[in-house]
Amino acid sequence: MYSQDSYGLGHLRRATNLANALVAERPDLSVLLVVDSPVAPFFDLQERIDFVKLPTVVKVAAGVFRPGSLLTSYGLVKAIRSKVNREVLGRFRPDLVLVDHMPGGANRDLVPALRLIRSLNYSTRVSCRAPDRAPSSGCARAFSANAASLRQSIRRNYRLRAWPLPLWRH
Q1: Per residue in 115-145, pLDDT tens?
Q2: What angle do CA 14, 106, 60 make, to 5 degrees?
């Protein structure tokens, strides 16, 4: 699961709620969360859930980000994030990638990783949850970008009997 949530807790809370519900339902499942929130280590995660912490970025305007804590260029932080995302998806080989909020990641830092798994012919399925008001983009069109399809994808792939609430507030 990829969750971009540098200041607020809503996206990270949804991702951890979902991860906890999935591993509770499926003893053969593990979840790797890819997050940039500095508070991620303080969330209550069940066994078989771990996370990778990306360098934090902060949105300052539509499509404009800056490093959250590091005294370096945003270009370097974005490159690090893209490389980490590629390594995680390329090596972990997940069955399903769930992307919350920004279908292509923060300023599209997830797109190279999604292209990599497609080029390697992994059977990984990708499902995105984006705000209904999100502008249409190539990435958003390439992947299903609404909460209903995310729910269907999770139910289809993981046979989750109950949807843990609150996950989405749309």
Answers
A1: 999 899 988 888 776 554 444 444 344 333 3
A2: 100
Mean pLDDT of the chain: 77
Tokens of 62: 């539509």
b/e 40-73 (16+ beta carbons within 10 angstroms → b): beebebeebbebbebbbbeeeeeeebebbeeeee
Please give the tally of structural domains in the chain.
1
Residue position matching structure tokens 């949804």: 14
**Looking at residue 29, what DSSP letter applies?**
-
* Dihedral sign for Cα atoms in the order 134, 137, 139, 144: positive
CB 35 within 8 A of CB 3: yes
Q: Is residue 170 part of a domain?
A: no
Whole-model pTM: value is 0.76
Question: Distances from the Cα of 78 to the Cαs of 32, 110, 130, in angstroms?
Answer: 20, 10, 21
What's 115's domain CATH number?
Answer: 3.40.50
How far the first Cα of the chain sits from its last, in Å, is 19
Residue 47 lies in a domain: yes
Q: What is the DSSP string of 46-94?
A: -TTEEEEEPPPEEEEETTEEEESS-SS-HHHHHHHHHHHHHHHHHHH--
